[in-house]
Amino acid sequence: MPAHDAGTELPSSDSQPAPTEKRSSRFGNGAIVFAVFLGILSGLGTFTFGYGKGASYLSNNPQSCVNCHAMQDHMDSWQQSSHHHVAVCNDCHLPHDFVGKWVTKADNGFFHSLAFTFGGYKDPIQIKPRNRRVTQGTCISCHGDLVHPLLPAVNGQDMLKCVHCHTDVGHAGR
Amino acid sequence: MTTSSNKRSFGWLALLTGLVAATTIGIVALLINIFERKQEARTPFAKVVVVNEISTDPKPWGLNFPQQYEDYLKTVDDDYTDFGGNHALPPSKLEEHPWLKRLFAGYAFSIDYREARGHAHMLADQEVTKRVTDVQQAGACLHCHASIIPTYRRIGMEQLGQDVTAKTLGESYNHDAVMAGFKAVSQRTYEEVHAELEKTPDHFQSGESDDPHAHMGSAHPVSCIDCHDPDTMAIRVTRPGFILGINKLAHSDDPVPHLPSIKKWRDEGAKGMYDPNLHATRQELRSFVCGQCHVEYYCANKMTLTFPWSNGLKVEDLEAEWDNTEFPADEEGTAGGKFYDYVHKETGTKVYKAQHPEFELWSQGIHASAGVSCADCHMPYEKTGATKTSSHWVRSPMLNINKACQTCHNVPEQELKERVDVIQNRTRSLIDRSAAGVTEMFDAIMAVQKNGATEDELQPIRDLQRKAMWRLDYIASENSKGFHASQESARILAESIDYSRQAIAKCYQLGTKPDSAPAKPKADASTDSDAADE
């Protein structure tokens, strides 16, 4: 907890005003304490960011997805999958446009961290509808030419998700 | 005023300092959490005690494997499901389903028959059921209800003239001695064999036990050693009944596509004995360990405990084996006569009693053909931290749908539960129909007997009766209410109904109408007629 302020107790307000040097020195002491705290915070923050491999999450490297052991099975089975030569995690699980990609990354980054920190998540884990739409979109993004005749006439209309049948193309582990 | 502005700016400074401090606390908490999660991913294992082949007490094993042991202990309080579960003393099925009383008339099951509870209760519940306390039962029952292998080994070693000390008993599984002991006690009484259990040394026995959970002496219900090798922890089978039974199955011509190692063993020339501990895959063993007990068998005192698998695993294969079995002659040389389980009291027909043929029914189902083992659903993998273990809290998959089903079935939990409910409710209504057929058949047979039908006239009717009862009991006493193989269950119950009606038609041909049948309780869809423990 923060240390007690080094300043002495203030006399009551009807006594003589304290001299300015004393005031500024007290403020100065406070500022020093604050600076020390701020330094500790930024130091700890930087260390934690490094220790938690924070920067890796800005990359496309699948290795960053297994920083957390929750994803180990998915990683292991992706390495055995039909797509591992052509797609990494982000190729299927993030939209292929700049804004969508970073919004989805932030969204999943936050909620994955929350789940992994506090536990109690489903195991086998389950994809949420938003992310299900993302994977469907990325299938189409690559395979659109081939499956064009299968797509709905109007954008957003209902269609069967590719992975409903092609369930293990990305990873068999859940 | 400068003082007040100074004060205010100092106040701000103090507040900011507080905020920064609070954030720092949060960061430290996160840091430590990340550290903990990283530690989780390491899986240290320390062997703190040595267990050996006589360590029937699960406690010392639990020191080495705390997670599995904790799960195992949870089997004392499984939740109640619609078809099986846990109560201090589960409700009697005989009250709920009066037809069971008529089906088992003349057999101990007509006195006391309740829902099964978890593994941890299996010995205690057997010790108090009226089927054991009021009727003389055979010691063969303990083949499954107790951790009995060391006792078989001790008695076998004595018979084979080997030196029996706690040390020699604990050295190895000693197949020959276990088999000899198994055969020696198979036909002795329940009480005698139970007493033998307490004469077998346990590696960790302190002498006098003040443990409230201890059964008498060192008798334990099924425990670690029954499925695991104490040296390597490898999964294995130990029960003589199963070892003999699966060998018979391997020597049969039943295709068993769901057991690839048997096919491989046959293709390699079917040499010697099929030894599951040698030939089976690990995935097969994840079902075999359950198949040591969750099967149909003969378990009384006229012959050694027998699994009827010499023709295959289908209901008619088992039936054919019983049809062709003769009891061995007794000491005086009197022929044992044709095999039967009990004489049905109302009609005097010798009939078969089906025990809980879960392994056999599962073998006919879609999960078996997909290579899904018993353990995959009843002991699904779970993660504690990053350590993946098979959950040793053996229980209904319906209490654990996420882990048990959703590893393969990518559909909502509710939908899976509803699918199972549909299968089980359909099976239950078919069971009720078969039960109605069987009880009406009893009435018809009793009527022709009253009118003086001869034994020759009755013979074909009795055969139909035995077939009908066997099929109804097979599915009613099986613990999945049809789920393990839903179409097969429906087929078997349909055959039961057909045989009952054929028998009734034959009674009518003898020119007798039954007395106006007693009012039967209407089949009530809100009760279950599921069978349970032996």
Automatic annotation (TrEMBL), chain A:
A GO biological process held by the record: electron transport chain
Tree of life domain: Bacteria
GO molecular function, one term: metal ion binding
Keyword tags: Cell membrane, Electron transport, Heme, Iron, Membrane, Metal-binding, Transmembrane, Transmembrane helix, Transport
UniProt subcellular location: Cell membrane
Signal sequence annotation: none
Protein's name according to its UniProt entry: Cytochrome c-type protein NrfH
Taxon lineage: Bacteria, Pseudomonadati, Planctomycetota, Planctomycetia, Planctomycetales
Region of interest (Disordered), ranges: 1-24
UniProt xrefs under InterPro entries: Cytochrome_c-type_ET (IPR051174), Multihaem_cyt_sf (IPR036280), NapC/NirT_cyt_c_N (IPR005126), NapC/NirT_cytc_sf (IPR038266), NrfH (IPR017571)
PANTHER family (UniProt xref): CYTOCHROME C-TYPE PROTEIN, CYTOCHROME C-TYPE PROTEIN NAPC
Keyword Cell membrane among UniProt keywords: yes
UniProt record similarity statement: Belongs to the NapC/NirT/NrfH family.
Ranges for domain NapC/NirT cytochrome c N-terminal: 33-107
Transmembrane segments: 31-52
Protein source organism: Fuerstiella marisgermanici
NCBIfam families on file: cytochr_NrfH
A Gene Ontology cellular-component term: plasma membrane
Heme found in the keyword field: yes
TrEMBL record, chain B:
Species per Swiss-Prot/TrEMBL record: Fuerstiella marisgermanici
Transmembrane segments: 12-35
Protein name: nitrite reductase (cytochrome; ammonia-forming)
Record's keyword annotation contains Repeat: no
Listed GO MF terms: heme binding; metal ion binding; nitrite reductase (cytochrome, ammonia-forming) activity
Bias type Low complexity, positions: 512-534
A GO CC term assigned to this protein in UniProt: outer membrane-bounded periplasmic space
Protein EC: 1.7.2.2
Compartments, as annotated in UniProt: Cell envelope
Iron keyword on record: yes
Residue ranges of the region described as Disordered: 511-534
Family: Belongs to the cytochrome c-552 family.
Catalytic activity line of the entry: 6 Fe(III)-[cytochrome c] + NH4(+) + 2 H2O = 6 Fe(II)-[cytochrome c] + nitrite + 8 H(+)
Stored InterPro entries: Cyt_c552, Multihaem_cyt_sf
Keywords noted in UniProt: Calcium, Heme, Iron, Membrane, Metal-binding, Oxidoreductase, Signal, Transmembrane, Transmembrane helix
Predominant localisation class: other
GO biological process, one term: anaerobic electron transport chain
